[in-house]
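Below is a filled-in request sheet from our internal design queue. Each sheet records the structural input a requester submitted and the sequence that came back. We keep these sheets so that new team members can see what a complete request looks like end to end.

REQUESTER: design group, bay 2
PRIORITY: normal
MODE: inverse folding
CHAIN LENGTH: 119
BACKBONE (tokenized):
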């Protein structure tokens, strides 16, 4: 199983930016999901192991950028123009079941990092 370590959450004002990082123990396609209080977990963005293919939820398209550095086995989520509705626990995921990228079932999950956007 791929081990994941996340970092980069925090508190930011509306319109601000944050960058999340997720380092994996191996090279694999990866994704970010988020879960707000009282809501179901939702897909945010995903990137293929090669870094060539990316996918975004409509709610973050144009504001968030997913990228990766394969030399470091690290995935990033640059979050710009943050809104209060982006407040959630963000979790990285890795090692999707074949045929399930980008929104499907992932076999490894990070511990989650809190992102809070104040109005």
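RETURNED SEQUENCE:
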């Amino acid at each position: 199983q791929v081990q994941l370590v996340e970092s980069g959450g925090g508190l930011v004002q509306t319109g601000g930016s944050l960058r999340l990082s997720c380092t994996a123990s191996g090279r694999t396609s990866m994704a970010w999901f988020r879960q707000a209080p009282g809501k179901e977990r939702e897909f945010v963005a995903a990137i293929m192991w090669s870094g060539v293919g990316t996918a975004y939820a409509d709610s973050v398209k144009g504001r968030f950028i997913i990228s990766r550095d394969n030399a470091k086995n690290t995935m990033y989520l640059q979050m710009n123009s943050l809104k209060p509705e982006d407040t959630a626990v963000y979790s990285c995921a890795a090692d999707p079941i074949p045929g399930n990228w980008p929104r499907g079932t992932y076999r490894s999950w990070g511990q989650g990092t809190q992102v809070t956007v104040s109005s």
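SHEET NOTES:
- The chain is about 0% helix and 50% strand.
- The radius of gyration is 13 Å.
FILED BY: M.R.
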